[in-house]
Amino acid sequence: MIAKIIKGRDFFRLSTYLTRDRRGEVLDMRHLSSDDPEAAASEMQTAASVSVRTQQPVMHIVVSYDPADAEPSNADMRQDAAGVLRGLGLAENQAIVVRHHDRDHAHMHLMVNRVGADGKSVSDSNSFARAEAALRRIEARRGLTVTPGRHAPAPDTGRRMRGDRATPDPRQHNAPDGVRRTLLTAGSWKDLHSGLATQGWRAETVQRGRGQGLILIGPDGQRIGAGQIDRAATLSRIRQRLDPRPVQTAAPTPAGGRPRVTQQAPVSPGRWYPPPWRNRWANYRPKESAEAARWMGAARRRCKSVFN
């Protein structure tokens, strides 16, 4: 058995996904006054609004069974769902158990409200480990095939899953070696884009939170981050290599003084770099002092004329 846990904010969207086109068979509705999934979602959303601090009250749990085992009955699934909820500390929370038949293996979905009747949210700390531990107990009790997990050990052997996954992730795309070489060896942005275009790929800059990233789009529409191809091909490192940047050079040391660092801009047409701030202030401070002295002198003369 395998469990997948997803957290969210909207009970209505999850309820629609679970029951649309009548593909979902509702097995159990726990601690809910309604028998309709849509009305139950509204009830759960209202109960979750009591907790202001909980930003993600929805916990979506997907429990899948090993195809080598016999097809579980609805009663078995209800009992297994109760065991998973107990393992996560959600036995007294609102939940809906829905069975789907759209896969070759048996599986069920649990839509759970993390906010309890007391208005407090159940902690989701170590939720994967606790869910896997509950599945190992269910497998041992019912004599099902034990599926090793990375978080909870098997009850009989005490072993966890180790190493890389045996099968590649179908959602992860791979880029050809030519694309990787272009990212690492291009001498300019023009060379990078033209080199990718000859192989049917293109690069786009996307916004990621407060920063930016470089996404490569293949001929078949596959998308992969440049940093996943090679850590030296991230957007920040490519910009360091291709974009001109000011360099720091040490100016001649004045007599009896400390060495002064000045900023020297590389030769780049159409690009202007302002002079260092220290040079600008060096010319401005004497003028400021002379102006202040003239102003203070005029003020003293006016005071003398008033009091004398």
Description:
There is one protein chain. Helices cover 37% and strands 19% of the residues. The protein has 308 residues and is of the alpha+beta class. A five-stranded antiparallel β-sheet has the order 1-3-5-4-2, with helices on both faces. Strands 6-7-8 form a three-stranded antiparallel β-sheet. A hairpin with a 2-residue loop joins strand 6 (202-208) and strand 7 (211-217). The longest helix is centred in the C-terminal third of the chain and has 31 residues, at 277-307. The termini are far apart.
User: First CA to last CA: what distance?
Assistant: 101 Å
Percent helix, as a range, is 25-40%
Describe the sheet with the most strands.
Answer: 5 strands, antiparallel
Rg to the nearest angstrom? 33 Å
Beta-strand portion reads: 15-25%
Shape: extended
Strand order of the largest sheet: 1-3-5-4-2
Low-confidence stretches: 167-171, 245-251, 261-271, 284-288
Count the strands? 10
Query: How many individual helices?
Result: 9
Query: What is the SS-derived class?
Result: alpha+beta
* Helix-strand string: EHEHEHEEHHHEEEHHEEH
Mean pLDDT: 81
